[in-house]
Specification:
About 20% of the residues lie in helices and about 25% in strands. The chain is of the alpha/beta class and about 200 residues long. It has a 6-stranded parallel beta sheet with strand order 5-2-1-6-7-8, sandwiched between helices. Strands 3-4 form a two-stranded antiparallel ribbon. The two termini are about 25 Å apart.
């Protein structure tokens, strides 16, 4: 088995003090760094939104963060402004060993379309190119860590499994937003898709 480690959106804006902070998001950095040091193929993903991206609540009249709306014809949560291209918030966490990455994949850069998954935009049609890269490296299995477990990590894991990769999520290397039962729903969806939820190693 040739496994790739995919580190999802471990960026400043998703860590405490950031614009869309995931509780305890920075606590996973030491474990993620250890996993990066051991992985054969290492991919980092990053939200990379242009100013005024349609996934931001501020781009929709009368909407507030965490309301729902349509972005590129897809109904989704509307977010606070976050991970805007070139800002400090879009940078990887300063203690993340980003220098170990074989590939950095930026997503959500199309102004009118969001991207949760590392593999597809939210229209479920437009690929990011990650599948082709992993296939070219001989990868047949994917391990995922990062932020947020119930949004971008789960979406990436579900797509990885759907594309035929043996897929596991290292739960201690993730943190969740968990609004309105979103974590329980994401865990159930991943289990149902055959994703292995790995409880170790600990942080």
């Amino acid at each position: 088995m040739h496994e790739a480690l995919v580190v999802v959106d471990l960026q400043t804006d998703f860590c405490p003090g950031g614009a869309l902070a995931v509780p305890g998001g920075d606590a996973i950095v030491p474990l993620v760094n250890r996993l990066l040091g051991d992985a054969a193929v290492r991919v980092l993903t990053a939200d990379w939104h242009p100013p005024g991206h349609r996934s931001f609540a501020a781009a929709h009249a009368g909407k507030r963060p965490f309301d729902r709306g349509f972005v590129g014809g897809v109904e989704q949560v509307l977010w606070p402004e976050h991970c805007v291209q070139g800002t400090d918030g879009a940078a990887f966490h300063p203690r993340l060993r980003a220098d170990l990455a074989d590939m950095i994949l930026r997503k959500g850069f199309r102004p009118g379309l969001d991207s949760y998954s590392a593999f597809f935009e939210n229209d479920r049609i437009t690929p990011t190119g990650l599948k082709g890269y992993l296939t070219s490296r001989g990868v047949d299995a994917v391990a995922l860590v990062g932020l947020a477990l119930d949004v971008c990590v789960a979406a990436s894991a579900l797509d990885a499994a759907r594309l035929g990769f043996r897929t596991r999520v290292v739960l201690p290397g993730c943190r969740a937003i968990d609004r309105d039962g979103s974590l329980a729903k994401a865990l159930a969806a991943m289990r149902g898709a055959g994703v292995r939820l790995d409880d170790g190693p600990a942080t």
